[in-house]
Amino acid sequence: MPDDLEQGHGNAAAPVDRRVAPRPETSEFVELLKSRERGKLKVYVGSAAGVGKTVRMLQEAHDLRRRGIDVVVAFVETHGRAETASQIRDMEVVPRRQIAYRGVTLEEMDVDAIIARAPGVAIVDELAHTNVPGSRHAKRWQDVELLRDEGISVISAVNVQHLESLNNIIAETLGVTVRETIPDWVVTDADQVVNLDISAEDLRQRLVEGKIYAADKVPGALANFFTEENLTTLRELALREVASNVDRLRESITRGDVRKTPQSVRTVDRLLVALPSQLTLTEELLRKASRIAGRLNLDWYCVYVQTPDERADRIDATVQRKLVDNIQKAQSMGAEVVKLEGTDVAATLIQFAVEHGVTLIVAGQSRRNWWQHVTRGSVVDKLVNNTMDIDVLVVSFNDQRANKSSRP
Fold first, then answer.
1. pTM
2. Checking CA distances to 64, which of 16, 107, 219, 382 falls within 20 to 30 Å?
């Protein structure tokens, strides 16, 4: 698979006629720019490289500039594409920061220079990009959040396969491991999300015509990632993601919610995922919980209950490392992680849920056999039979990959 499929790179499209009227979504974004002090975020979501995200962002930048908005190109990589380069020719481009790494000099977006320049809007491509070590942040989406905190609005782009909660779905369905991801809440928190839709047939034709990759990469891309089946799947995921975002935004407007921080879409209901200590499929559980929270527009907690047998001086070192990894993964997905202590795990979780307005608990299916259920009980069974009107969703796993020593 071509390297830049993992990078969320920008894509080419036909040059725009400068005489056309401004797009409706541009007018909507202009109104958003006037509404709040924190910088706004607009995200173009695509199904794959080549749908036209980068060129569309640059076209919008020209539209905004004609409306008197101060716009700069903070980071756009043309990849040698003439169509993309033509859109930048008369735009102000903030010089990149040069960073020495392993004997070579690499270029990254210069966040400090952009903040010093203080434009109204910054065009930032490749939202899922991983920065070179030595950069201010590890990920570009973190740079974008800082720009927003400084009052600078951002227009960015990402391919749907880079959403963290879809990582395992992409791996299982497409057979592709996406190494660079962004937390779902980054897109959920966006003030405007636009899908650039294109059929699998048209996208493959763009690839054949050399509008996406160099000629030597085309045969491999057509045979592997850019199959009609893969592109159709990604297209459906992108359309579904944007539709869900529109529904969430409509609901928040109806309720009169004001979103101020990455995780501040507040509702009465909240979701809790019960974090087990020895379940090897915890990452899959977290991704499912993240997707559910996003679909239902819920804040969510990841709660781990430490029993006396799982104190730091008793728990296996390997399990402890895995637990820490899972906690960090939950935080990266946008969960508020809470560690509690108790002898009765289910009772502790229920008490926390009642005190924090949780109406849905997500737990992994128990892997214990019938005898263990009889002699030791099951956390999941106790959660399901709670008397506090809290719904419980039990997530099943593939038996071939499940760890049968998990606590629930």
1. 0.61
2. 107
